Amino acid sequence: MAQPTGSKKHTAGALDIRNVIGALLFVYGVILLVTRLVAGDEGGENSAGVNANLWAGLALAAVGAGFMIWSRVRPIVVPEHVDSPEDLTPPKR
Known about the structure:
mainly alpha; two-stranded antiparallel sheet; 4% strand; 2 helices
């Protein structure tokens, strides 16, 4: 089903699962980074001197930001109207 000329594409927006996952990962990463700044220690006995909160927080924040950027660069287009299940199949390339 071709879209008529001049029709506006409707995207999933905030309901895109990549935004939800990205936001959660980003928030958890920021929480770990804040924990690192508040605690101020350079790692504990269990982490062999490696600052686990810092590195895990940076990784989570980066992956979360990546998910949110991905959803902005390649948004999911929601069809306006679907007549049959065949309309849901992607076009052949």
